[in-house]
Amino acid sequence: MEDTSNDASSLAIEVSRDRQQRPMLEITGLRKRFGAVEVLRDVSLAVRPGEVVVVIGPSGSGKTTLLRCTNLLEEYEHGTIMIDGEPIGYRIDGRSGRRVRMSEREIARAREQIGMVFQSFNLFPHMNVLENIVAAPVRVKRVERRQAEVRARELLAMVGLSDKAAEHPIRLSGGQQQRVAIARALAMDPKIMLFDEVTSALDPELVGEVLAAMQQLASDGMTMVVVTHEMSFARDIADRIVFMDDGVIVEEGKPDQLLFAPQTERVRAFLKRYNDRYRI
Amino acid sequence: MKEFGPLIHSFWYLLRGAGMTVLMATSAVVPATILGVTLSLLQVFGGRLLRSAILGYLFLMRGVPLLVLLTFVYYLMPLTGIDLPPFWGVVLVISLYYAAFISEVFRAGILSLPQAQWDAARSLGMTRGLLLQIVILPQALRLAAPPYVSLCVSLVKATSLVSIVGLWELTMASREVVERTLAPFQIFIGAAAIYFCICYTLALYGRHLERRVLLGH
Amino acid sequence: MTGTVPFDPHFIARLIPALLEGAAVTVELALLTMAICLVWGLLVALANGVRGPLGWVAGGYIQLVRNTPLLIQLYLVYFGFSMTGFGLSGFASGLLALCVQNGGYVAEIYRGGLQSVSIRQFEAGRALGMRRWTLYTTVILPQVVARVIPPLTNQSIAIIKDTSQVAAIAVMEIMKITEVWVETSANTYDVFLGAALIYLALTSIAGLVGKLTERRLAFAQ
User: Fold this and answer.
1) Contacts of B123 in chain A (CB under 8 A)
2) Residue A206 is inside which H or E element, if any?
3) Predicted-complex ipTM score
4) Using CB atoms, which residue from B63, B192, B203 is nearest to C72?
5) CA–CA separation, A176 vs A171, rounded Å?
């Protein structure tokens, strides 16, 4: 960022204004193919700080791939992704103007700012819950172990699992495991959290506790991108809903508007199928 | 019972042979394991050329009997002028042979881990070295432990082959005793019993490990 | 290097038929062993599943042969029998020892194959009203057969390699012929190269046959 003023206070004001205006996550022109199939076709998305964006759509629409490209778990051929103004994965080389892949080390550092929770088999089974949560802060960010454990217990309390610190994941229910996974991701103090269908593999009665934890996170002001099938949850938690189909963003809007008065036929068809099955 | 006299008289000699067997097996297992784990990691992460080379090596070790390799080295050694004691010569061959099988076992262990383990570790900001060290390898080693112990049992039994190229261990010792006492039944049964004790103990340990793996460590 | 004259075409011309003769013995030994063990291993596996003394004997037999070296078993059979005056030839001893040992391994393969068929398959069949015979023959056995092919293929490769050990009791298979030729000629490399190539060919063929069998059976399902 260029320094346009020597005055410290006016610089501070400028910086804070920029930060409020600058998207936390900015995806531009993302294109990805798997072999011959184009899974993402020119996708762009901007997420403001503190915003909760829910991505819905039929399977194969590219929602999960979009998430995985964000922290470069998948490579992509075209497009840029910025986290809080810093590029991740690929950057445009200042001199040649060409797209250059960042080094493994740079990518790993960028990933520290993104927390991600997966559908299943998230937790490290050979460590207990506490070790799962402190492993990354201690080994990656070099946080002192005692400090990391204190923070870990705070996070466990936040997700309601204080008494499970010494348990191994195999002793926990799916819902409890996912809550630990959320705590583990939060332990790295990320700027944005990504959720990839985190309740899809759970028994129905365990879904609620995970959604409650995510709701809490949203209320605390975390920037979140959530891929989910849970429509009522989407309506409750989302500031904005994005509908994807066939690799593109078809429509986006506020929950009540998109879910009850969609503008596009594809969205209407999708929601109708969903309604017939679940009755929102 | 008195027919087992020859066995009882020579039992101590056979036990010394067993000691050599154990020494040989232990000396071979260590480099075999180190090489095997290294090869499995190279196969998972290495470039195409490296992987092809390793595949070729695995194909050889899988398709050619250990005895052929041992005999080859036995005849080759004097010709190359390398002054290697025969003990280390056979230990080297056995190590190279079993490294191939150990690498396959570890590779299977690594590959059987769900992709989500890699994803979760990487999304927490771990570099490849760190995630291998604290997430992947601990789990892969636990998964690979039972079949690895089976390979160790196989290795112990394979040391018997060095008697064919003239090295002394339990099988050679028992052949010597049989030549002397002309009581093959008793002596070879005695040798078999000693092998059984060593191998069955290992096998029991392997089954114990298998149960622990099934219970999710 | 003293003592070796590599790639002498005359030598190779004489070597190949000799090695091929050995290969014939190897193949004969391996095929017979495999054929016998397929049946014998099944019997042992069935006996192992039975409760009571028969089960214990079978179980003990499996543990015994898996935890003792083939070479000792070979010597035991060959020299043991010759002592009783009821001498077995090298080939017969080798065949007997190979079958005894691999019978145990094949039995374990059958057991693993049966165990790996999900209990739900049994339940589904019973829920459909199948009696035990129908259940086993139409639902369980085809699945067991499919699962058992890959480890049996591996075992047949192991058998081919194990035949090399009968050289120790003077059977003229590949390994023994290799030994003889190496002792009596200067071309060490050629002889070993030839032997290695033949073994590689045999084991590769066995592997291919196994893969093809797997595929054919997959279609039949």
Assistant:
1) 71, 73, 111, 114-116, 185
2) helix A204-219
3) 0.90
4) B192
5) 10
